[in-house]
Amino acid sequence: MQAAWRLATSNLSARRSRTALLVAAVTLSAALIAAVACALESANGAIRQQLEGQIGSAELRIRPANAGGVFPIGVMEIAESWPETDFAVPRARDAISVRVPLTVLEPDGDNGFVRRERTLTTDAMANGVDLRTEFKIRPPTMIAGRLPRKRGEIAVDAKLAERLSWVYANANQTEEALNQLGVNTDHLARRAPEIPERVTNEAEAVATNRDVGLRVGARVSVLRLFRSPVSFEQLENKFGISREGLTDFMRLFRSSVTLEVVGITEPPPLGGAPQVVMGLETFYTITGRAGVVDEVEVHLKEGEYDPEAVAERHRGDLDDSLSLTTTEKVTSGLEKNLASSNIGFILASVLATMSAAFIIMTGLTTGIAEQQRGLAIIRCIGGTKAQLAQAQLLTGLFVGGTGALLGVPLGVLFAKVMVTVYKDNLPTGLRIPLGMLVLAGIGSVASGLIGAAYPAWRVSRMSPLRALSNRAEGVKAHHLGVVLLIALACLGIQAATIGLPNDGDTLFWAYTTLGLPAMFVGYFLLCVPLTVLIVRVISEPLSVILRLPPRLLGRTVSATPYRHGFTAGAMMAGLALMISIWINGGSVLRDWLAKIEFPDAFVNGFRLAVEAQDALDALPFIDETCAITIHPVQTDAFGISGLTTYTTSFIAFEPSEFFGMTHLEFIEGDEATALERLESGGAVIVGREFQVAQGLGVGDTFACSSGDEEFAFEIVGVVTSPGLELASKFFNIGEEYIDQSIHAVFGSRQDMIEKFGNDNIQLIQIKFNEGTDDANAMREIRQALFGYGMLDAGSGGRIKQEIEIFIRGSLVVFSAVAVASMIVACFGVANLIVASIETRRFEFGVLRAVGAQRGLLTRLVLAEAVVIGLTASIAGTLMGVQGAWAGKRIYELLIGLLMELRMPLGPTLAGWGAVFFFTIGAAVPAVIRLNRQRTRELLASTKG
Amino acid sequence: MIRCAEVEKTYTLGSERVHALRGVDLSIERPGFYGIMGQSGSGKSTLLHLLAALDRPDAGEIEIAGKAIHTLSEREATAFRRKGLGIVFQSFNLIPTLSASENIELPGLLAGEDRQWLRKRSAELLDLLGLGERGRHRPEAMSGGEQQRVAIARALLYSPPVLLADEPTGNLDSANSDRLWRLLGKVAEEQDITVVMVTHEPAAASHCERVFVIRDGTVHGTIETEGLDAGGVAARYQQFIGAA
């Protein structure tokens, strides 16, 4: 081993620049994996912190069995009486409207700007808590002030404070204003600016107003919400009081409560509704809902009890309408969902590792050709095959190991910079996933060993006598044929892993472990015959264009098709990634988002008051409204076992109203029959994804569970995925991360109430009259619903637009990864071109000796780079398309999304441009070095 | 010391079969400086490769220092080359990435020898061959003659009983060539080993004590060089060649 190590190190140190290029390629590859791992962990950390902030540190939780319900606070005393209990924490939640008076500078005709009083309002989620115990299990991070201590005090989160600011209000709640939110919350810790009576300068007025907003010490008016103690149905049935009559009556007594803001807390990192925290008494004053809570959390005595056993022991102590669960169940679900985001990491890591392995393999194989004589001499003087093979493996190990040692910290550093730049979105800072970083390091070392395996095998088969011969071995046509067959076989394996499985699980794992590597190897090998084909086609015209002697380019490339082909192979991966991403991303935009029909507007709330719908109906520009309840149910219809678990949204509506307003395209069944069956109960209609992924259709049974109960519904229609489902997700990004909810099942509210016991309204969809101005309508809706528990309102068009911006943004981010992959390959290509020039120095010397100018050598090398670039572009495009087809099948079987693949012309052209730029750019330094050498030096290069 | 009996070797070049050796009989009984002469394509290099255990004969027997090398496996042949004999090639025979000392030490390194012993031995050999100050230099910084002397030093690392040289002065000028031939003669005498040099130059052959003339794949005769200068050797050689 000592001899092999000496051979490896002497070889590496003698070609320092090329060793550096190889190490740089692996370093960047490892850095890419490490950076993605850290970014993922940091993002997950932020999410975990947010969710743990919601879940808290308590071990047990009491909630109503019927989602959305409330229960008497007296239940807390039962929990406190259990011997295992340390303390119990109650929590009540509801939506509120908050109004704050602000002093701002406003234009006063031609007289500059004068001081005026303005009022801003917005909606938020109120959290009524026990001020003595709440912050023990869920301590918030303060930006300014303190936590509330007594009645009449509240703490608001930064998101709410920013919404109640001049910047937000003045931008008219546009996207520009939304983008400003959360960018910088430092100003919230400062005192509100002194507003002068008058200023003449507009810039000064704008600068002064920029800091105007809600601050600690402000007194806000919180509108007391209407809340009926019993349902409208009960009132009507038992007391004969109509819904309309009661609503009109209660409006007379609506009044606001004035509270003092004593603190501003960090906002939830994932978005979601603005939050306000206050004591339970204050909460009851605002909501008029005294003596009830939404949940009680139970903190057990330190380390003494098994929460699951405690829950089991005390379930019987509680009323049947309450559920007692361990919070670990929630967190384990969270961990599972967070783990599912590792799928992309796994695929990206496999790709990056293989890419680096191929670069190393090509570099070392070229090195063998270059050192053939030296290796033969070593064999002649007693070096064994094993020693030469070991030297190659140790070279690979050194390159991979050094790449890991440099790349992993570099990736962490890069992630640190990114986390610092986006610190507002990632408040938990940089999280370093040691396990993943070790994997990234192992991946790099593995890429070195995998990359060195083929050169090691080749060198161990080298005959010393043949290697000593000066005769160059020609490329055998049948060898190229064998390479082509192996390549096609690999591509066939990928096609089989994608085309044959009929379930998502098998498809995903078969593709990740076999299909993807086989496709990679297949296209890598395919580049060799493709290079021969391409050079045959373009060598003559290219020679004419670049004024090269006839046949020189063709013969040069044809003599070393493996070297040129493998170089192209190293370059193709980034382009393939880019094309694949844009084909799939474009399909998502075109086939999914573009076909979704949104109602004109949505209103979202925690428990929307029923009269909110009446208030909307009273607006002149509104044609129709439809109240909707969205209830999460568990189903095993989708996902990858062990990595993902899915919750389906059971979307409940009054069938006739909903059908009158929402266009559903029936793929199976028809609207009339579905309507009739839905109204009679026990039936649902499902999204097309169920049919695609699970083969479920009309007449089949859809099984789901809610709490501990199982339910079965007959499917009476299969419809295309409507925008309603998407809109509900848009308003609940944070919760979506817990639930990982996809696809909807549509049923009647009657079933929802009877089976799931949930009669809340979370969403109202709105249809405008013809010709209604979208912006004005949204403003009026927000004003009309002030005080009705609305958390947000969105125009259908804007939601769609923002989702599109998000998807396009994601595509750009992934394209950056693809370009980074091309840069990684660029170092490999540079190494190969340098090696290629080194092995042909004598040939170049002869060309110069017989009269070739330096420019001719430059043009020859650049022409070879063009051939490599063209091969890489064609192979990368084909691989990208095949990869996109795999993506299409994965989407289809895992989440049921049907997509039509279409080539994205712009990104493809950009990718081709990048490939040519990087390939030719990689050749330039080597060409410059070549041109600096004198003919005599080039001719002397064969003497060793 | 060296014995070849009825050695045959055939190659296939393209579609053509070439009988490189057609029953070579050759015997060297005692240490000394010997030559193998022949025209291009006569089979002299093929014979050297067989003697070096780089290839195996199709038929016949080859013994070196009592070892039947025609029966050796690939692994045994490699081990034999490491310590049983030394080889010097025409050119490109040093590893360009290693210094002169490291090139000399390389066979020992491959055998897992003690590094201190290797350093001491390479220093001795560098001194012996007049390269005492050149140990740290890489081949590219040395003249052709110096490189070839380093190659000889490497071949002598284990003091093998046999040293084979394949046209070692093919890339040297006449002054350096003459110096090298004398050096090989001196090494054979002082180290008490058998040096076999393949050459086509009478001037080189004149330094040997006996020359085997190869023609058409067989040993056509021997030239005892005692008392002959280059011209004399050339004349005797022409007699063998001309007799064809």
CATH topology-level fold name of the domain at 1-74 and 191-244 in chain B: Rossmann fold
CATH superfamily of the domain at 1-74 and 191-244 in chain B: P-loop containing nucleotide triphosphate hydrolases
Radius of gyration of chain B: 18 Å
Mean pLDDT of chain B: 86
Multimeric organization: heterodimer
Would you mind describing this structure in some detail?
The complex is a heterodimer of chains A (944) and B (244). Chain A is α+β, with helices and mostly antiparallel strands and 944 residues long. Chain A contains 35 helices and 23 strands. In chain A, helix 2 (16-55) packs antiparallel against helix 17, helix 26 crosses helix 33 and helix 33 (854-895) runs antiparallel to helix 34 (905-932). The two termini of chain A are 26 Å apart. Chain B is an alpha/beta fold. Helices cover 37% and strands 28% of the residues of chain B. Chain B has 8 helices and 10 strands. In chain B, the strands form 2 sheets. Chain B has a 6-stranded mixed sheet with strand order 6-7-8-3-9-10, with helices on both faces. Chain B has a 4-stranded antiparallel sheet with strand order 2-1-4-5, with helices on one face. In chain B, helix 6 (174-191) links the parallel strand 7 and strand 8. In chain B, helix 3 (100-111) crosses helix 4 (115-128) and helix 3 packs parallel to helix 5 (144-155). Chain B is globular. The chains are: A alpha+beta (944), B alpha/beta (244). At the A-B interface, helix 1, helix 15 and helix 18 of A face helix 2, helix 3 and helix 5 of B.
